[in-house]
Amino acid sequence: MNISDPENSEDSSVESGDDPITSPPTEPNEEQKREIARWVAEGMGLSDVQKKINADFGVVMTYMDVRFLVDDLDLTLVDKEEDKPKETDDAAEQALEPEQALDAEGGVSVELDSVTPPGAMASGSVIFSDGQKKQWTLDQFGRLALSGGDEGYKPSEEDVVEFQKQLDGALRGKGF
Predict the structure, then answer these.
(1) How far apart are the first and last CA of the chain?
(2) Residue 142 DSSP class
(3) Can you tell me the distance from the alpha carbon of 32 to that of 41, in angstroms, rounded to the nearest whole number?
(4) What is the chain's Cα-based Rg?
(5) Cα–Cα distance between 60 and 37 in angstroms, integer?
(6) Rounded to an integer, what distance in angstroms lies between the CA atom of residue 55 and that of residue 7?
(7) What is the per-residue pLDDT across 105-147, written as a single tens digit (0 to 9) for each?
(8) Are 19 and 26 in contact (CB under 8 A)?
(9) Average pLDDT, the chain
(10) Are 132 and 103 contacting, i.e. CB atoms less than 8 angstroms apart?
């Protein structure tokens, strides 16, 4: 083979990186990484960072590549969606305050679960006047079962009556 062969010279230029067609960069440079860190600190999400890297820097990265880059740069993502559940948790705590007032007066507090386990018509939890908490389940035959908490615990007769009244009211409110 002759070294001056045109086919051979093309192969050697590709191997040496002298390819006339340059491919786009696959990773941001250091200055761009600092800019990405600023975006993440401002609360930008991964998909938005991915789009902005492509638009601003011309670097095409997959979502996972962006995720790994953020991890490699030791950046902490600020999830705006996490703030929303905290607000609903605050609302749920405020809704529980009247029940806590019942507990302070020695009352019984009944709560319904939003997701019912298989085989049950309804389920939830109850806090008795002495602070003991139990899980309750009502099956399709109308049988009520208590579980959890102290194994040998039995609520007082007054608490059982109050529990039944509150459970009846809560279930009627949900259409049972």
Answers:
(1) 89
(2) S
(3) 14
(4) 31
(5) 17
(6) 38
(7) 458 889 888 888 888 888 999 998 888 898 988 888 888 888 8
(8) no
(9) 75
(10) no
- Which percentage of the chain shows pLDDT scores above 70? 70
How far apart CA 30 and CA 67 sit, in angstroms, is: 17
What CA–CA distances, in Å, run from 73 to 7, 33, 48, 122? 44, 8, 17, 48
Q: H or E element: which one contains 80?
A: helix 80-104
pTM beyond 0.70, yes or no: no
Tokens of 148: 């959890």
Which residue type occupies 2? N
Per the listing, tokens 């298989």 go with 118
DSSP for 16-78 reads TT--SSPPPPSS--HHHHHHHHHHHHTT--HHHHHHHIIIII-----HHHHHHHHHHTT----
The DSSP output letter for 79 is -
Q: What is the pLDDT of residue 13?
A: 45
Residue 151 tokens read as 């194994």
